[in-house]
Amino acid sequence: MTTARSAEIAGGGFGGLAAACALAQRGWRVRLHERGTELRTAGAGIYVYENGLRVLEALGAFDGAVKGASIAHTREVRDERDRVVSTHKWNRVGRVYASCASG
């Protein structure tokens, strides 16, 4: 009889949830730790910043990863009534790509 592998994941963001799901699907026993009282979203897409884009380029995965994505210039956070809570404008220091989820 084999013992199931176990993992402790720190953070319930996109990366932590994806890692936890992938391991659980492969038979691992997973415990996810999140300091917040609930999981939350920020926006409706995935933003990839310059450092991540460089990694994708080094792996030869850049073209496939940004296919269909938009270059992000501005990000807005809105509340439940669609009021703008905050706005962030990216300058030309680095690239930011956004892949928005379709509803």
Relative strand content: 25-35%
Largest sheet: 3 strands, antiparallel
**Terminal CA distance:** 44 Å
Q: What is the chains' assembly state?
A: single chain
Query: What strand line-up does the widest sheet have?
Result: 3-7-4
Helix content: 25-40%
General shape: flat
Low-confidence stretches: none
Order of helices and strands: EHEEHHEEEE
Mean pLDDT: 82
* Structural class determined from secondary elements: alpha+beta
Number of helices: 3
| Count of extended strands | 7
Report the C-alpha radius of gyration, rounded: 17 Å
Write structural notes for this entry:
The chain has three helices and seven strands; from the N terminus they run βαββααββββ. The chain has a three-stranded antiparallel β-sheet. Strands 1-2 form a two-stranded parallel ribbon. It has a two-stranded antiparallel ribbon with strand order 5-6. It is an alpha+beta fold.
